[in-house]
Amino acid sequence: MIRETLFPTHAYTLNDAIMKKDNAMIKKDIMQKLKKTNRPSWQSESNLHLKQKYKSLCDQIIKMATKIFEEQDIQYERFEITSMWANVLKTNENFHAHTHANNYLSGVYYVQTKNTHINFLDPRPQSNVIRPAVKNYNILNSSVLLLAANENKLILFPSWLQHYVSSNKDKEPRISVSFNIMFKGILSTLQAKEYNEF
Q: Taking the CB of residue 142, how many other CB atoms lie within 10 A of it?
């Protein structure tokens, strides 16, 4: 028996994404901004990709996205980071399931986190028609898949893929930087194409 993979959904991860000193600089910038708000939890303005302090992170994101587009054989004129913002979640706070509209790729970089993960929901609407009991949950039978969220880890995924963040169970705030990527210029086609490999 051969198991074929149809319409796979990929997320891409990179550990030790930037230098520790760059991560420390980003963390300091976020904590200074948070302190000025006088709030325990917070989301920053969405233009961090234009700030010099975030250049090393932006360079790594562009490099990673370029490799993804090469792997997917995507044809495009150019692309750019369209928005980038910081998130701070205090203990027991979470963030609801959502997508990032009007972008092709989205992602998150973890500045400070312990024992946590990002949750991705099954994007196939018909997969819930029948859900039999399973002996052990795995990638073939689960409706939610988790990726570990480690400090200095970068994760990119399709913007349409629904995701959420579970409650922060650590005493320290969970600090992350989210971002979106979109093509610029003319896209070649919106027409569905067939691929015959079977």
A: 13
Residue ranges of the chain with pLDDT lower than 70?
40, 188-198
Contact 81, 61 (CB under 8 A): yes
pLDDT at 190: 58
The pLDDT assigned to 186 comes to 76
Nearest to 91 by CA among 159, 174, 19, 24: 174
DSSP per position, 27-86: HHHHHHHHHHHT-SSEE--SBGGGSGGGHHHHHHHHHHHHHHHHHTT---SEEEEEEEEE
Q: 185 — alpha (psi -120 to 50), left (phi > 0) or beta?
A: left
Residue 108's closest CA among 68, 145, 149? 149
